[in-house]
């Protein structure tokens, strides 16, 4: 499988994995049968695996240019990603993670001007903004040394692994 078929399949799987368990009866049944921790661990693992598949499928879809962000877009990513990671690490509750995804998706949407990536990051941005509309912006941040250290490690890891996993360096030089 490849091309647009795989991209659409990965998109549908990712969306389904987030919409179906959000239904109160289904989520309640899953939590009751698996336990809250096992449900959250399984849901998180499945989400990461499906997101990785979706990103890979977007990269393998036929390239259809929509716009060119130029080299300036890479500067945007390098400014936005530390902010996204900090919001995810320092905010209290899931709203920080949702805000981090919104920043990540918005910055990547501006930089990746092809059809598949516009669909991927535009969809992620819409999904994250919907979550923020439901939960609101983070109301509290907890900047501790361990959390700041974790944010720094995550940022360095993403920066280092991006060329290996995604196939493109986010650095502007």
From TrEMBL:
Residues 8-170 form the NnrU domain. It is found in: Membrane. The keyword Transmembrane applies. The keyword Transmembrane helix applies. It is a multi-pass membrane protein. It comes from the Bacteria. This is NnrU protein.
């Amino acid at each position: 499988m490849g091309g647009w078929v795989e991209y659409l399949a990965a998109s549908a799987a990712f969306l389904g994995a987030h919409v179906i368990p959000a239904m109160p009866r289904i989520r309640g049944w899953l939590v009751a049968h698996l336990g809250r921790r096992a449900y959250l661990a399984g849901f998180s693992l499945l989400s990461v695996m499906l997101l990785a598949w979706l990103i890979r499928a977007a990269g393998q879809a036929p390239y259809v240019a929509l716009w060119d962000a130029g080299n300036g877009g890479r500067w945007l990513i390098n400014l936005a990603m530390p902010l996204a990671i900090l919001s995810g690490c320092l905010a209290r509750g899931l709203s920080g993670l949702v805000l981090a995804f919104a920043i990540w998706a918005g910055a990547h949407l501006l930089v990746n001007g092809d059809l598949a990536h516009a669909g991927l990051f535009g969809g992620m941005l819409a999904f994250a903004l919907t979550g923020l509309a439901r939960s609101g912006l983070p109301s509290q941040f907890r900047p501790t040394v361990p959390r700041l250290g974790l944010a720094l490690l995550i940022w360095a890891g993403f920066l280092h692994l991006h060329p290996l996993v995604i196939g493109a360096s986010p650095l502007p030089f």
